[in-house]
User: What shape does this take?
Amino acid sequence: MTSSATCGYCGETSNNLKSCICSALSYCSKICQKKHWKVHRLACPPFSKKGTGVGSKGRGLFATRGLNPGVVILREDPALSADINCNDDDELLKSFKSLPSEKQAEILNLHDPCPEDKQGLLRKIKRIMDVNCCRSSKKLQNTVKKNLYVANAFINHSCKPNCCWKPSEESETMAVVTMTPIMKGEEITVNYFFTIADERGEFCLTRESRRRKINELFNFDCLCSECSQPREEDDKMRWQYQRLDRQLEVGFEDLESTRRVFEVAEVKLDLGTKLDAQVLLRDLMDCLIPLKCLLDIDPDQDRRGAYAHRYQELNKMLRGAANAYPERFINDILPFVSSTSSS
Assistant: This one.
């Protein structure tokens, strides 16, 4: 039984219609729902909110259908925004009160680390923003803001996420992009602390390092599947990944050192694909840079043929991974590795 009495496809009126998972439309049969899907899928969100996440993580977002990598599943403007260095409480409260009552209720229903504190509305709003906001840095505008995205706030952290945040470079809009295939019913997760600007050796951290970092930055114990129990073999691979990552810091200067760097980068790429989808872009760049050089300097024609084939494979993977990163960043790196050498 649904709130609608009219089929979204054929228009039949009935008291026994079945609702779409988004609750926006109802159908008299699965046949009508399938026939209308090409139209309705444009408005049907690919996720739903559920009251409990995995384990004790609370609420979360879950996929309502299978999703491929590189899909933007959410694009959202901040409900509230404040300069990171400004404590204008009056302006924050004014912005909150200017929102529709439904949006205010959504914000006040977000996680509050101290709900028993009854010392006023402003204190509650500030607590909610402290634990639910995303940091936004815009170099061109020279601004650093904390933005509260209501739907985004439902996404739980994972140390091996299936999605990532992709902030706009021109506005405060935040997108959520899939990085791995996601099955219907699977929880949508992001990594709260990941940044591609970290130093070498600071990616694919071991369980203890991750849990310590999460606790220091966000004041909670990580409950994701990667951290829920010790995994000795997983930590060994992560130690190896970090060691290989640091080895690449020295770079290369001749044919032999370039070959060695490429070999190390290939091993690191293989490990990274098993450990964390977020490092794929870095790992691909670490392979493509020496590989491009080998195409220019290696005199062996057979090896150059193999390098060219591998280059095309990795370059294709790079373009797929690029969907999850800001356009300006991608536009800077793609021209450098966009085509094979003609020599």
